[in-house]
Design a protein that fits this description.
alpha/beta, four-stranded antiparallel beta sheet
Length: 467
């Protein structure tokens, strides 16, 4: 018993030293799939081919923090593969302990669902369906879920250093499947109460334990963060320290790394005291595949093509430099260890991201790939001051009206994005007033953004009615 206590104390001291010694800029990795992949037979190896503990591999490479998703009751696993559940509390607690034992911090990602939560899907956990339309009771369910799980992690010596309430919350959260599937919906008073309950639970755990926990919200797509942050602020949801973004070229093109940096700069200026981080990104090292599961990252940016380990690393280095240069404080890579195995997902056998991990198809660390990104330091290149221009951006029926001065930055355009941050229209701009028809654009909610190659000048949320 004494030896176990001493070992636990040593692990805690090692973690504290590691976190105190790390730079202000965080390089992290979402390793939620690791333990499932291990149980499915994956044997992770270093660059020399020697078997190694995956958490130790990432820690030794310089990873600062591990992101872990938590589902409420993922019972759908019961009929998948061996029937073992993952990303439930038992699995997450073990992964958090392994992360901290290796000297890394933990970012806990509450999906507030039994299944994947993202811009298109925010399903309420089945256990909370009876109170889904009783806001006080549902808010209490959120509070109790977050408070009890965090206190249990504290008792186990695995309290996370950062917590995000919700995952890619670009719409209303905790919806029935029928409400979710009926179309995009965002009831701000309801949403605000639910977020406040979750954030308050984290604050109360801080008070109870005497340990600081950074609280975060998470938005998908850089072009969506402006209007969503305005909504959070207008509804007094302010009790968080970190604004987390998802940014993938696959889904958020044509938004560039430079434009993402510009958006981060605006957030830092508009919301003093808030940190801004990229909570999710990813980039392929190959267009090949190792199994029958369709891969989700299949596009490359022209500046990082063809796909290769070097291109993957450069994407991360350049993104980190842009985030740091514009006042941001971290980048996390999503699922760099979701390697191919004989196990299945609900959509196919294998991994849907083996071509964008930090490992080759034999689960060996890639030479010169993303794993090498952890060891670098974010540079802060000098950014020329962007020209200030006055932009009038309006919706007029089934069209957008843009009015600009005669002298314009080069390659200025108006891009239209769906609510998930995916580009759906792009119009080149010139000085003066111009109208762009939105024919063929399905009914729904969109964001119009006036931007140049490296600067965002104006954005507007608008509703497109069916023709």
């Amino acid at each position: 018993m004494l030896n176990r206590t001493i070992l636990s104390l040593i692990a805690v001291l090692m973690l504290a030293a590691a976190l105190n010694g790390q730079s202000a800029f965080i390089r992290g990795a979402d390793l939620s799939y690791v333990q499932e992949m291990e149980d499915c037979g994956a044997l992770f190896k270093d660059t020399a081919g020697n078997p190694a503990d995956p958490f130790e591999l990432f820690a030794q490479a310089g990873c600062d923090m591990v992101r872990l998703r938590l589902w409420h009751t993922p019972a759908w696993y019961d009929t998948l593969n061996s029937g073992q559940r993952y990303s439930d509390f038992t699995d997450v607690l073990e992964a958090a302990q392994r992360s901290k034992g290796a000297g890394m911090g933990v970012l806990l990602d509450y999906h507030l669902s039994d299944f994947w939560a993202d811009p298109g899907r925010q399903w309420v956990p089945g256990a909370w369906l009876p109170v889904v339309h009783d806001l006080p009771a549902l808010s209490d369910s959120v509070y109790q879920h977050i408070y009890t799980t965090l206190m249990a992690m504290h008792e186990a010596g695995a309290l996370p250093e950062m917590v995000q309430v919700g995952n890619e919350t670009n719409r209303g959260i905790l919806l029935t499947q029928e409400e979710n599937d009926a179309g995009w919906v965002l009831d701000w008073p309801r949403n605000a109460a639910l977020f406040q309950a979750g954030l308050q639970a984290v604050s109360d755990v801080e008070s109870e334990t005497g340990q600081d926990i950074r609280k975060a919200i998470h938005i998908a797509g850089p072009t969506n963060v402006g209007w969503l942050m305005e909504g959070f602020a207008a509804n007094d949801v302010t009790g968080f320290e970190v604004i987390g973004l998802s940014y993938y070229w696959q889904w958020h093109q044509p938004t560039t790394i430079a434009q993402t940096g510009s958006i981060i700069s605006s957030l830092v200026a508009d919301y003093p005291g808030k940190e801004v981080m990229i909570f999710e990104t990813g980039y392929p090292w190959t267009m090949d595949w190792a199994d029958g599961a369709s891969n989700i990252l299949t596009d490359t940016h022209p500046d990082y093509a063809p796909a290769s380990p070097d291109a993957q690393r450069r994407w991360l280095e350049d993104l980190s430099d842009a985030v740091a240069a514009n006042g941001g404080s971290g980048v996390f890579y999503w699922e760099p260890a979701w390697v191919s195995t004989a196990c299945s997902t609900p959509w196919g056998q294998g991994s849907h991201k083996e071509n964008a991990t930090f490992f080759d198809f034999d689960s060996r660390v890639l030479e010169g790939g993303g794993m090498d990104w952890f060891g670098g330091e974010a540079t802060t290149p000098t950014i020329d001051a962007a020209p200030q221009i006055q932009v009038v951006l309006q919706q007029r029926g089934q069209a957008l009206w843009v009015e600009l001065p005669a002298e314009l930055p080069a390659l200025l355009r108006c891009d239209v994005y769906d609510i998930g941050g995916r580009g759906v229209r792009s119009f080149p701009l010139q000085g003066g007033g111009q109208e762009f028809r939105l024919s063929g654009l399905p009914a729904g909610t969109y964001v119009a953004v006036v931007q140049s190659a490296g600067q965002v000048f104006a954005s507007k949320l608008f509703e497109q009615a069916g023709e």
